[in-house]
Amino acid sequence: MIKKQLIMEKALELFAKQGFEATSIQQITEHCGISKGSFYLSFKSKDELILALIDHFMMQIISDIDYTVKHTNDDKKLLYEFYYTMFHSFYKHSDFAKILIKEQIQSFNKELLVRMHYYNRLNEEIILSMIERLYGEEVKLTKYDLIYSIKGFMSTYLELFLFYNVPLDFTLLSQSLVEKTNLLARHATVPFISQELIEMIKQPIHKEVSKEHMFDIIEQNIAGIEESIEKESLILLKQQLTEPTFVPAIVKGLLENIRNHPHCKWISYLLRRYYKF
C-alpha cells in the first residue's frame, strides 16, 4: 500500500473515534507505524491531511452522481437513479460522512468551509441540469426552490442511517423521494428562491481545471496504481491530452475503464467535463 494512502486510511480510523481536533499527528504516526518524518513527506500538516480526505470522499460522491445523471438515458428512471446513487455512495463512505457532517457544523476552519462550498456548488450544478432536463419550462420559476428541496431530502434522510443506524431500503427510499420530488415540481406554484437571490448568495466556483492540471493528476494516478487496465487507460488518456488522435468513442471507452477505480474517479469526472461527454 502506498504510504500516503496508508496514512489516510489509518487517520480516518482515528478521526472516526476521536474527531479531527482530538487526534494528533503523533497518534496518527503511531497508528500507522511510521515516523513523523515519513508523515511530513506525504502531508505538510494535519489540516492538509484532512483536506485530502475531504477531497477523496467528495470526489467519489460527485463523480458517481455526475456519471449517473449523464449516462441514464431513460428520463423516467433518472430521478430514481440519482437518489439511489447518492444514498449508496454516502453509505459506502459512511464513516467519513459522519465525521464530515459533524465537523463541518462545528468547524471554524475557513479552508474546510471553502472546500465544502466548492463541492456543494458542483452538486447543485448536477441537480439543476437534471431538473431542467426532466421538467423544462414547467419549473422555470421554481427550479431553484426545487434544488434546495432535493438537497433537503438528501441531508434529512442521510441522517437516518448516518446517525441513527436505521436500516434503510434504498430502493423504497429512492422511490418515495421520486414521488415527493415530482409532486413539488408539478404542483408548487409559489417560488421563494429567485435567480437574483441565487446570484446574491453564490460565490464564484473554482475555475475550470486546466489541461496541465489534469495532466498532473493523471501522472500522479499512473504512479500510484499497479499494472492494470486502469493504468493502461490512464497512459492512453494522458497521450490523448497532449496529442489528440483517438475518436470520441475510444476516449469514452478509456474513461469507462477507469471510472470505478477509487483513485481515478475524479480524473474521469474532469475529463468527461473537458470532452463534454
UniProtKB/TrEMBL annotation:
Q: What is this protein called?
A: Transcriptional regulator
Q: Which Gene3D superfamilies match?
A: Tetracycline Repressor, domain 2 (1.10.357.10)
Pfam families, alphabetized: TetR_N
Which residues mediate DNA binding here? 24-43
Which UniProt key words apply to this protein?
Answer: DNA-binding, Repressor
Is this entry keyworded Protease?
no
Domain of life (superkingdom): Bacteria
